[in-house]
Design a protein that fits this description.
Largest sheet: 5 strands, mixed
Number of helices: 0
Order of helices and strands: EEEEEEEE
Strand order of the largest sheet: 2-8-7-4-5
Number of strands: 8
Helix content: under 10%
Strand content: over 45%
Distance between the termini: 42 Å
Shape: elongated
Radius of gyration: 13 Å
C-alpha cells in the first residue's frame, strides 16, 4: 500500500526566496493535513510555520527566511515521513 509523501521544490531552496510544499495524499486516511515547516537560522534558532493542505488544494507556497540555512517539513498527522532540505545563500556562497 502506498503512503502519503511530502515534497519541497526547489531543493535546495534559496534564502529569501520561496518554496512550494506539496502533499501527496495517496494512501492517506484523512482529507486534510497540517504540516509544520521549520527553518534553521544562521547564528542559531529556528522559525516555524504551520500550513494546512487538503486533497483539493495540496500545495502551498512558503517564504524562506533570508537567514535560513536548512529546513524540515513534518506531517503533524504522522502519516508521511519528514522531508528535509538545504537552503543556499542567494549570492552563491
Amino acid at each position: 500500500m502506498s503512503t502519503p509523501s511530502i515534497s519541497v521544490t526547489p531543493s535546495p531552496a534559496t534564502a529569501g526566496g520561496t518554496i512550494e510544499v506539496c502533499y501527496d495524499f495517496t494512501g492517506s486516511t484523512v482529507d486534510t493535513v497540517q504540516l509544520q515547516v521549520e527553518f534553521d537560522l544562521l547564528g542559531g534558532g529556528t522559525e516555524q510555520k504551520t500550513i494546512s493542505l487538503s486533497k483539493t488544494d495540496n500545495c502551498e507556497t512558503v517564504d524562506v527566511p533570508s537567514n535560513a540555512t536548512s529546513g524540515t517539513v513534518d506531517d503533524l498527522s504522522g502519516q508521511a515521513n519528514p522531508d528535509g532540505f538545504a537552503v543556499k545563500d542567494p549570492a552563491g556562497s
